[in-house]
Amino acid sequence: MALILHATKENKNAYKTLIAAEYVGVKVQLVPDFQMGVSNKTPQFLKMNPIGKVPVLETPDGPIFESNAIARYVARLGENNLFGSSPIDQAHVEQWIDFSSLEIDANLMKLLLPRLGYAPYLPPAEEAALSALKRSFEALNTHLAHNTYLVGESVTLADIITTANLYLGFAKLLVKSFTSEFPHVERYFWTLVNQPNFRKIFGQVKQTEAMPPIQSAKKPAQPKESKPKTKEEPKKAAKAEPEKPKEEAEEEAPKPKPKNPLDLLPPSKMVLDDWKRLYSNTKTNFREVAVKGFWDMYDPEGYSLWFCDYKYNDENTVSFVTLNKVGGFLQRMDLARKYAFGKMLVIGSEPPFKVKGLWLFRGQEIPKFVMDECYDMELYEWTKVDISDEAQKERASQMIEDAEPFEGEALLDAKCFK
Ligand SMILES: N[C@@H](CCC(=O)N[C@@H](CS)C(=O)NCC(=O)O)C(=O)O
């Protein structure tokens, strides 16, 4: 009789067991119609795994949770030895199982979950996870430079668990420009996923062409409420008051949106849209036309200029991630489009890349709503530009112009917010 595995068909943690089962000739079946978020919340499921996580294996001797433990159990039931034949090989199998779980899978999840909206997206946390992942890929790559399999001369459970973990990375997150730095990992992964026992479970594997775009964290569903109660309407009073006639309630005009305090500032002679148009339309003689035009238009009473410097440049070790990070920042600044213009430079031809920028804001301070609502702001050091200082003014001009080299270094990219 087959053992029953509770998981969906897409669960890579379940794949570990399903592949191991193929190798050792044990029958394991996925429970039909498993629904994540529903089937794992039932009292029967919680009896098998009190924290409700998936997968769980039902055995004649009781349930098992934790995917590595399940895969080990199934691997021990069969004929083939997936654990190595000497104490040192057995230790190495365990070593690589732990390594792929704690150094690869854990970092992949730290990268993936925020991008899928299941955890808050924090650029420094992404940088840290990515650099930890690179470190583990480097170690794995070095080992695989001289070894076909992780341990010995044939597939062990270490290969099964590592490949299942890598599968998630290759399929969802790690683009070719990342993995190509680790050619032995690539060779290993593609060789294993094409072995018949792996292929039966994975099907045809395709590497992702892009990292998933950043989504805002998914909020837990709120219970439906008729109307929020205000402080001025304590429960009791609300109860005592007769209900408003429907018509009256419907006629209540929506409150006008409060004006942005920046709209209440004294008018400025600088028209931001004119500057943005000049910037966009200048194709030649940029210094003489656009940069000069900027300083002619600039109104230091109505606007202020700011240099920004990324605080965590050391973590900018991967070019496309650094560019994504800056791109995400500019997207999130959308809320300030009426009041701001910005240039962001990604500097250097080798990692770690430096990110520096120049921003023009309406008013004399960085607008409070921008500070409050765009979390990227606190990842940068902000310094007001003193335009009476010619060196600072020249630096600002160079940033507007994308001058290269900038401060002695090549530009990887320059992005504009307008
Ligand atoms: N360490 C566990 C991780 C299990 C896990 O995180 N499972 C996910 C699905 S892949 C889950 O059940 N998530 C639902 C939840 O966190 O409530 C294992 O390897 O089995």
Question: Any descriptors?
Answer:
binds glutathione, single chain, 16 helices, five-stranded antiparallel sheet, Glutaredoxin, four-stranded mixed sheet, 418 residues, Alpha-Beta Plaits, 44% helix, alpha+beta, Glutathione S-transferase Yfyf (Class Pi), Chain A, domain 2
Briefly, what CATH class of the largest domain? Answer: Alpha Beta
Largest beta sheet: what is the strand line-up? 8-5-7-6-9
* Rg (CA only): 29 Å
Judging from the principal axes of the Cα atoms, what is the shape? Answer: elongated
Mean pLDDT: 90
Task: Identify the quaternary structure here.
Answer: single chain
Domain GST C-terminal: 86-214
GO molecular function, one term: glutathione transferase activity
Protein name: Elongation factor 1-gamma
Region (Disordered): 210-266
Report what the structure shows.
The structure is a single chain. This protein has helices spanning 12-24, 43-48, 67-77, 87-115, 123-144, 157-172, 176-179, 183-193, 196-202, 235-240, 246-251, 272-281, 286-297, 319-332, 368-373, 390-401, and strands at 3-6, 28-30, 56-59, 62-65, 303-310, 340-347, 354-362, 380-384, 411-417. It is an alpha+beta fold. The chain has 3 domains: 1-80, Glutaredoxin; 86-213, Glutathione S-transferase Yfyf (Class Pi), Chain A, domain 2; 263-417, 2-Layer Sandwich (Alpha-Beta Plaits). The strands form 2 sheets. A 5-stranded antiparallel β-sheet has the order 8-5-7-6-9, sandwiched between helices. The protein has a 4-stranded mixed β-sheet with strand order 2-1-3-4, covered by helices on one side. β1, α1 (12-24) and β2 form a beta-alpha-beta unit. α1 (12-24) packs parallel to α3 (67-77), α1 (12-24) runs antiparallel to α6 and α4 packs parallel to α6. The N and C termini lie far apart (65 Å). The protein binds glutathione. Glutathione is lined by residues 11, 13, 52-55, 66-67.
